[in-house]
Amino acid sequence: MALKIIASTCTGCSACEPECPNVAIREKGGTYIIDPAKCTECEGHYDDPQCVAVCPVDGCIVKV
Ligand code: SF4
Ligand code: SF4
């Protein structure tokens, strides 16, 4: 029930961070990470994970 950002593919564009309804995304060392304790895959807020929807890199944010 949480998504993960593949750090090696994340460009650090920051597009995902403000879209998260749970404030689960933060910057760490130039790329971004998702706190699995906070990520609900957007359930109850949106039909689809918003971070995936806005991320310009295909396959950067995946299910764990
Ligand atoms: S799936 Fe939703 S809750 Fe989880 S990190 Fe992405 S935007 Fe936040
Ligand atoms: S939108 Fe994608 S590439 Fe941009 S910071 Fe978030 S995970 Fe990284």
Sum up the structure in keywords.
binds iron/sulfur cluster; iron-sulfur; Alpha-Beta Plaits; 4Fe-4S binding protein; two-stranded antiparallel sheet; mainly beta; 1 helix; 64 residues; 22% strand; 8% helix; metal-binding
3D architecture notes:
The protein has 64 residues and is mainly beta. It has a single domain (3-63), classed as Alpha-Beta Plaits, CATH 3.30.70.20. The chain is built from one helix and four strands. It has one helix spanning 50-54, and strands at residues 3-5, 25-28, 31-34, 61-63. The chain has a two-stranded antiparallel sheet with strand order 1-4. Strands 2-3 form a two-stranded antiparallel sheet. A hairpin with a 2-residue loop joins strand 2 and strand 3 (31-34). The longest helix has 5 residues, at 50-54. It is globular, with a radius of gyration of 10 Å. The protein starts with a strand and ends with a strand. The model has no long low-confidence stretch (mean pLDDT 97). Keywords: Iron, Iron-sulfur, Metal-binding.
Helix content: under 10%
The overall pLDDT, averaged over residues, is 97
Give a short account of the largest sheet.
2 strands, antiparallel
Distance between the termini: 8 Å
Q: Report the CATH architecture.
A: 2-Layer Sandwich
Net shape: globular
Radius of gyration: 10 Å
What is the domain total for the residues? 1
The CATH class is Alpha Beta
Low-confidence stretches: none
Strand content: 15-25%
Give every kind of bound small molecule, once each. iron/sulfur cluster
Task: Give the number of helices.
Answer: 1
> What is the total tally of β strands?
4
H/E element order: EEEHE
Predict the CATH topology. Alpha-Beta Plaits
- Spatial strand sequence of the major β-sheet: 1-4
Structural class: mainly beta
Keywords: Iron, Iron-sulfur, Metal-binding
Pfam families: Fer4_9
InterPro entries: 4Fe4S_Fe-S-bd, 4Fe4S_Fe_S_CS
Protein name: 4Fe-4S binding protein
